[in-house]
Amino acid sequence: MKTLDMHNIDFEKIARYLADEMERDELQDFRKELSRNLNLKAEVVTMEKLWADISSSALTDNDSEVDTNIAWENLSGRLEKDGLLSSQERIATGFPGWLKIAASILLVISLGMAAWFIAGIRSDVQLLTLSTDDTDVTLIQKLNDGSVVYMGSNSAISFPKEFEKQQRKIRLSGEAFFDVSHNPEQPFFVETSLADIEVLGTSFNIRELDVNSMEIFVETGEVKVNIKDMENNIFFLKQGELLKIKNGWVEKSYAADIYNTAWRKNHMQFKDETLENILSVLNKNFPAQMMVEHPELNQRKLTVTFYNTSPEVIGELIAISLNIELVTSDENVITFRKKY
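Below the sequence we write its predicted structure tokens.
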């Protein structure tokens, strides 16, 4: 898990991409580079989120295009008012849109991504980015609301350390399975390059196949899909339904018997995760019930990978790694306790 590394970022190129000011050939090359370079993909995900927060008050009348002049004026005006930016340091409105995007993001990052209110929206949230390589290990992240994300290979997610009270929002590129905690007062959104997905509490799989195609499969519950840049673009998916998007073409079908989401359980990896969170994920995915006898064990942290094995072997690996004991019962209950 990492925050944005400013030393290795081509802000000009990414900002022109966000501003939609790349020529066609350059855009195609950049998208190819995104598909190959996981670090670049993670940086773009984080910068997209920052720009979305900055520009949320600068939508034009059609509610789809951002006026970069307004967005820059909102930010720089607030900084000048708070004494964090002089009037001489404000960029002239005649500068290109991509430069305002780059400048806005750089200012927010360099000042710690903190203390900003733009049109009533806070952007002081600490953004975290998590990415995977091309191995077949599933990286698992439990979010602060109790939701669990299972990340496939060559994937990246960006999310706040603490969700906003009004909503929970996460940015995805690649493939991930989401098991979302139910909270009607705080809807959960997943943003991708092609579509935005909204849920209250459900489990579903999102898989980006390339820059123009993706799949969304609902294992439990219901999701709402808003496909970008398409007329009649709202789709509702119920349990067992699959939505395929490819080059502007959409197909909805029932695929509960053929769509496989078991990939997430084969090679499960946790990085610096508490035992409490690890056990909560394992209990959702295996028939055995794992628990601790001593509550203080819950906060012990562990980095571990489980390779397609049984709950009993998983229990033994946890006990060895944390130097604790385990007791199994005939009722498929595995209990961890301190050594005496």
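Residues 38-55 form the longest helix (18 residues).
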